[in-house]
Amino acid sequence: MIQPGLIELENISLTLPGFALENINLTIRENDFFAVIGPTGSGKSLLLEGMLGLMPFTSGRLLFNGTDMDRVPVEKRGLAIVYQDFALFPHLDVAGNILYGTRYHGISRDEAQNRLEHLSDILGLSRILDRRPHNLSGGEKQRTALARALILNPSVLLLDEPLSALDPVFHGEAKELLKRIHREMDMTIVMVSHNFDDVIYLADRGAVIHQGRICQTGDINILFEKPCDLFTARFVGMANLMPVKVGKGRVTVEGSDVSLRTANQPAFPFGYMGIRPEDIVPEPEGDVPVGSEPVGNRLRGTITGIDNHGMFIRVGLDSGGLQFEAVWPRRYIRQYNLSHGSGIRVYVSPEAVHVFREKLDPVPGCQDKAPLS
Amino acid sequence: MIQPGLIELENISLTLPGFALENINLTIRENDFFAVIGPTGSGKSLLLEGMLGLMPFTSGRLLFNGTDMDRVPVEKRGLAIVYQDFALFPHLDVAGNILYGTRYHGISRDEAQNRLEHLSDILGLSRILDRRPHNLSGGEKQRTALARALILNPSVLLLDEPLSALDPVFHGEAKELLKRIHREMDMTIVMVSHNFDDVIYLADRGAVIHQGRICQTGDINILFEKPCDLFTARFVGMANLMPVKVGKGRVTVEGSDVSLRTANQPAFPFGYMGIRPEDIVPEPEGDVPVGSEPVGNRLRGTITGIDNHGMFIRVGLDSGGLQFEAVWPRRYIRQYNLSHGSGIRVYVSPEAVHVFREKLDPVPGCQDKAPLS
Amino acid sequence: MSVLNRAKTDGMGLFFMGFSLPVILLLTLPLIEMAREPTVAMLFNTLKDREVMLAIARSLGFSLSAGLLAFVLGTPLSYLLARRTFPGKKLIEGIIDLPVMIPHPVVGIAILSLAGRTHPFGRFLADMGVQIMGTPTGIITVLLFVGLPFYVNTVKAGFESVPARLENASRTLGAGTWDTFRRITLPLTWRHMVLGIIMCTARAISEFGAIVIVAYHPMTAPVMIYERFTAFGLEYSQPVAVWLIALSLLLFVALRMMSRSAVQYQR
Amino acid sequence: MSVLNRAKTDGMGLFFMGFSLPVILLLTLPLIEMAREPTVAMLFNTLKDREVMLAIARSLGFSLSAGLLAFVLGTPLSYLLARRTFPGKKLIEGIIDLPVMIPHPVVGIAILSLAGRTHPFGRFLADMGVQIMGTPTGIITVLLFVGLPFYVNTVKAGFESVPARLENASRTLGAGTWDTFRRITLPLTWRHMVLGIIMCTARAISEFGAIVIVAYHPMTAPVMIYERFTAFGLEYSQPVAVWLIALSLLLFVALRMMSRSAVQYQR
Amino acid sequence: APAGRLIVFHAGSLTVPFAAIEKAFEARYPHVDVLREAGGSTKMARLISQVGKPADILASADYEVIDNVLIPGFAEWNIRFAANQMVLCYTDHSRDADMVNASNWYEILSKPGVAWGHSDPDLDPCGYRSLMVIQLAEKFHNRPGLYDRLLSNRPRRNVRPKSVELVSLLKTGHMDYAWEYLSVALQHGLRYVPLDDRMNLGNYKYEDFYKQAKVVVSGNTPGSGRTITGKPCTYGVTLVRNAPNPEAAEAFLAFLLSADHGLKILEETGQPVLSPARVPSGEMVAKLPESLKRLVVEE
Ligand SMILES: Nc1ncnc2c1ncn2[C@@H]1O[C@H](COP(=O)(O)OP(=O)(O)OP(=O)(O)O)[C@@H](O)[C@H]1O
Ligand SMILES: Nc1ncnc2c1ncn2[C@@H]1O[C@H](COP(=O)(O)OP(=O)(O)OP(=O)(O)O)[C@@H](O)[C@H]1O
Ligand SMILES: [Mg+2]
Ligand SMILES: [Mg+2]
User: Fold this and answer.
1) What is the pTM of this model?
2) ipTM exceeding 0.90?
C-alpha cells in the first residue's frame, strides 16, 4: 500500500467526449489542506476521480511521493475519499461501514476495534453503531463517512463538496470537525468546494480550475486577495474592477484622476485594479484617527445607494465619477449617519488595492469566456 | 383561475407514514417575500407541496384571499413554483418551456409572444430560445425556470431552495434577479432556503419550521435578531447563549456578576441571553469615543483564542469567568493589536442583547431535541 | 454510469468474460446452426413460395397487431401501475406476470374453452359475431395474452422514469391531468412505448404452443415451421425460420428508427 | 415517487381505470376458466396420480435448474453488460434478446440439429458423453436458452441500480475488484438475482414448443398436459395445469420469502 | 359449385400426399381453399369431439380411430381408402447401416448403443403398429422373449408423439433406426429394411396371423388400458357431422377417392391404396352421399 503525502500532477490530460482536463500541473504538499474551486462543470470532480485512478488520465504523470501511479490500481493508491453524498454502504450498519476497509490495510481485529471505539467516541457515533445508513441524519451520515476513511489512517483524504448538502447547523459542526482533523492528524486533505467561506476557513492552499484548466494555484489567501487574472478575480468575488495605468507604487484609474497607492508594484504598465467591497472602510469626518495610515488612499464620495437587507449592508459610492461598491456592518448606518446622497470619506489600505492582468499568458483559453454579465 | 395574494393556513396537518406536519398556522400577506427555514427533513418542501395541492392536507383549511382551496385542483390554484433543480421539460426548447403554461391562462398567442420577448430580454435568454435544457448552464436553466413561471404573471411564486445548487457566481446573479423581480413585479414570493445570507438579503418575513411544526414566524430581522426560543436562537446562529436572571432593563448571567442592559424588557424572571458574535464590538483603550453610548454595557476581557482564517476572525473572550465569542473583520488584529492573552474592552449595544425563554409554551415538542452539541 | 474499460489491471473483468462465454455460445450456436443449414438457393426458393411468405406476413402482421393493441389497451394500465396506489395493485401486478409462466398449450386450451359454444362467455361472443377458433381474432387474442406482460412491464418502467416532479410542474403551470399526460408524459415515454411494442411483438412472433391449439389455420410461421419440420424435414423448415427472423429484425430496426427520428433528448 | 390517491378530482384516473378493464379481463378470464373447469374431486384424484406428480416435479425441477444455471452463468455477463463498455456490446445485448422472438419449435429444432451425430458439435458432445435428445440435459438446455434473457435483463437492471460510486468507494477503501463485488455489489443485487431466477424459472415452466421437439420423454408438465388433452380430453389435462401453476406459485413465494429474510435495506 | 374454406384434418403420415392432392384439388376448384391440419390421428379426432374444433374431413391412419372416437356422435360412416406397411428406416449414418437386412435387424436393434425408436402407441397408430411388428417377428422368427429384449434396449426417450418426427431424428443422427410407414420412408428418401408380409401389417391375406399381436394402449382415462389387436394398416376417411362446408367436403372426398385423381396421387407419392375404396357394411353405404357411393365397394 502506498503512503502518499506529496502529490504531483505533471502535464495531466483527461479527454472525454465533450470535455477535457488539459495540461494540469499541480503540486499538493504533505499536510496541505488544499482546496480546488471553480464553476460547475469545470472538471473538479473529474480531477479527483483521476487521482483516485477511477478515470484513466489520457496523458501526463501522476506521482505520489515521486512514484508514478499509472499502473497502480485504485485500491493500492492509499487515497481515501469522502463523497458529497457520503456513498455509505446501505446493507451494512454504521460499524460495518466504518470497519469495511480495515482488513485490506493489515489492521488486526483488535486494533480495528480500538480505532473504531476511539473514532466513534470523538465523532459521537458510539450510540448509533448498529444503525443502518438510511436511518441516519445528514450529520450522522457525514461523520460515518469520515470515520470510514479516517480509520485507515490515510495519508491523503479527498473531499468532494463534503458540506454542501448540510443545513447551517450541521454545516458549522462539520466544518469544525474537518478543521480539527487536519490540525490533529497527520494528513494531506484535498477538498472540492463551492463555498468560499469554507474554503477560506479551512484551506491553506488551493487551485482555481476553469473549463478543465488550472487558472491559478497557491496560498489560499493570495488566491482570494491577489487573483492573477480577471476570471479568477471575478470568480473569487473581487469587486470594483477597473482598468488602470500602473505608476510607481500607485495605480490611476483610466479616464479619471482617482489614484491609489498599492502595496505591490506590478511589472506591467496596464492592467486591472480590484478592491473587495469590505476593504473600503468608512471614516468619521474630521481628523484622521490616531494610529491609522497617515497619508493618502482616502476618497471622498457620495452615497448612491444602500441595500440594507441582512447583517451587512451593500453601499454604492460615487467618487470622481467612478462607481464603487462597499460592504459594511449594519451598525455603520447609525454610526456614520449613512443615507442616500450623503457624502462620506473612505479609506482603502494599499494592501487592499489588487492589480492584475486581464489574461494570463501561459494558460490561453482559460479566460476566454467571462462567466459574468 | 384563482389569483391568490393573501395565503392563510389554518390549523393545517399533513400526516404521512413516518412524518407529519402538525398544527400549521401561517399567514402570508400580499407582496410578502416570505422565507421558510428549518433543518433538513423538517417538512418545508412538504408544506409547499401541500399549498400547491400536490399533497392533500389531512386536516385544516388553506385559504387564498379567503377562498377555501380544498377542492381546487393543482392547475386551478394559480400558484407557480420554481424547483431547486428547475424541473424543465427536457423535450421542449427554452421557448417551448417558457410558453408552456400560457394557453391555460387565457393568454393570446400574440400576447404570449410579447411577454416571451420581454422576459427573455430581461433575463438574457434571447439567444438561447431554441436550445434544449440539457445544453444549458445552471444559470440559464434557472432563468428559464423563472421565466416559465413569470410569464403567467402569477400572483404567488413558490421557490424551493432555488439557489442552493449554484456556484458563487451564478448564485450572486440569481439572488439579484429575485430581488429585482420582487421589487418590480406585484408578487407574493414564498421561498424555502438553507442559506441565511440569502434569506436575510431577500425576505421580509419568514417562519422557522422544526419537526413539522412552526417554531416562530414574523419579520425576518426579528426572526434572526430576536428569536423567541432556544431552538430558533441556535438555529439562526445566535451565540453567547447563557442562562440569565431578568432584572429591570438588564439581565444578569446566572452564577456570575456580569450584567448587561437590554433594550426590551422581558416579561419573565428567568430565561436565556444571546448575543450575535458580530455584535460584540472592540473598543480602543482610553476614553469612550465621541458619539457612542455613554454608559455601561462595556466588558473587559482577556483574549483566549483567535481563529484567523478567512475574511473575518473568530475571537474567544474570557470576561468575569464567562466565555464569549466574537466575530470581527480581519484588520482589527492590527488595529487593536489583538493577540492571545491580551486584554481588551468590548461594547455590546443594548439592542444586541437578546433575551428569550428556553421553550415556547404554545408549541410543545418543537424544541424537545436540541439539534446542536 | 458508464465506466470506461480498465482491462489492463482487472482480473475480475477477464474472469467474468471467460465465464460469460458458455452463455454466449449457448445463445449463438443454435442461431448460427439455424442460419447455416439452408443453402442460399433454398433460401431464395423459399422466398418464391407464396404460402411461406403469407405465413410470415401473417406472423408479423398478427404479432404487430398484438403489439399495437397492447399499446392501446396496456398504456393506461401501465400508467396507473407506475403512478397510483390503489387497493389490489399488488394483485394486478401479479396477474400481469402470470402469462409468462402458464404452459403455452394451457393458454390455448383456456382461451379456446372460454370461446367455445358450451361456455356462456363463448355464446356471448358468438352472439356478437366474434369467432375465436381458427381466426385472426383468436390468434391475436392469444398473442396479446402472452405478449402483454412484456409491454406493460417495459412501459411501466418508462413512466416510472419520468420524474413525477415534471408532471407536477406542468400542473402548477395550469395544465390539467389530461394535458399533462399528453404534453409531458407521453412525449417522454414515447421510446419506451416503442420498445414495449417491440418486446410484445417479439414475444408474439415466437409463440407456437398456444396458437397451434387455437388456430392451426390461418397458418402462422411457427406453425408452418413445425409442420414442415415434422412432415418434410429440416431443410424445408429452416429457410422459413431464417426469413421470419430476418424480416422481424428488419421490422424492429425500422420501428426503432421511427422512434429515434421522433424527439431526441437527454435528461 | 409514490403519489397518493387523489381520486376525487381526477377524471383521467377514472378514464384510465375504465380503459384498463379489458386488459385485466383478457388476462383473468382464461385463468379463471382454467381453474374453474376441474371439479375438486378431479383435482384430488390427479394429486394421487404418480405420473402427474412426477411430470410437475420434473417441470419445477428442470425449470429451477435452468434458473440456477442462469444465475451461475448469467451473472458475470449481466455484470459486464451493466458496468463495462467493450466492442461488440450492443451485438451481445441484441443476441441476448433474440430467444424471446425465435419461434419455439425453431429453438428445439436448432438445438436438436446441433446435438445430432451428423453435426461436428454433436459428435463432440457425444464423445463427452453428453446426450441432448430426450434427456434432462437437453430439456434444461432448452429452458436455459428461452429463460436466459429474463435473467440477464433483470439482473443487469439490478447491477445498474447499484451506484458505481458505491463500488468506487469500496475500492478507495482498499478492496480489490473481487472483494468489492463480493461485499458490495452482490449483497446489493441479491434480490434482483432472486427475481431474475424467478423470472427465468417462470418462463421455463411455460415452455412447450421447444421441449416437445427435444424431449417428449421424460415428460414435463406442459407436454403431459398436451398429451392428456389429446389422448383423454380436457377434464384430464386441466387439473395438471392447475396443480402446476399452484405449485410454481408456491415455489416463487418461498423463493421471495427467502430473499426477503436476507438483508433488508433501503437506499 | 363448391366454394369457401375446407378444413381437412389428417394423419401426419399423409402430409406429403395430401399436400399434393390439395394443390390438384384447388386447381380444379379454384373457389375452394383447402386448409389442412396434420397431427396424430387420435389427437385430431379429439379436437373434433372434445374441443369442438371445426373440421370437414378427417383422414386417419387407422380407420378404427374414426369408429372409436367419432362414430356415432360426430360422424356416420368410415371409408377405408389406403393401406400401408411398416418398415424399419435408417440412414447412411446409422450404426451397422452397411450390414442390416431382413434377417438380422432384430439382432442389431438389441445391440446396446444402437438407438431406435417408434412413436407413442397411445397417440399414434404407427406407434402400436411398430410394437405389433416386433411381436409378430418374435412369432415369425420363433425367438421367444424377443419383444421384451428389444424393448428393454429402447429407452423411453426414443418414443416420440408422431412417427414423422422420427424422420428428423434419424437425419440428425439422434437415432439409428425408426419404425415408419413405407410411404413415409419413400417420401423422405430414407433407407429401409423391408419385412416379410407376415410382419409388415400390409397384406390383407395375413389378417389372421396379425391377430396374434396384442398391444395395450391407454383407455379413455389415464391409467386405464385398452387392448388393440393386430390388423392390416388401413387408413380411413370420414365426413364430420355438422361440417361447416359439406358441399366442398363431398367434392374433396370424391376427388380423393377417384382412381384418376386422389388415389393416383397417393400411389405416386408412395402410399399404397385400396382401389376402389371400401366400406364395411351395406348399411353404411346407404348413408354415404350419392356422389361417393359409386366410388366405393362394400367389403
Ligand atoms: N464519464 C463522463 N463522460 C463524459 N463526460 C463527463 C463524464 N464525467 C463528467 N463529464 C463531464 O465533464 C465535465 C466536468 O465534470 P465534473 O463532474 O468534473 O465537474 P465539476 O467541476 O465537479 O462540477 P460540479 O461543481 O457541478 O460538481 C462536465 O461537463 C461533465 O458533463
Ligand atoms: N411522500 C412521502 N411519504 C412519506 N414521507 C415523506 C414523503 N415526502 C416526504 N416525506 C418525509 O417528510 C419529511 C419532510 O420532508 P421535506 O421534503 O418536506 O423536508 P424538507 O424540510 O424540505 O427538507 P430538505 O431541507 O432536506 O429539503 C422527511 O422526513 C421525508 O422523508
Ligand atoms: Mg463535482
Ligand atoms: Mg426540501
Assistant:
1) 0.82
2) no
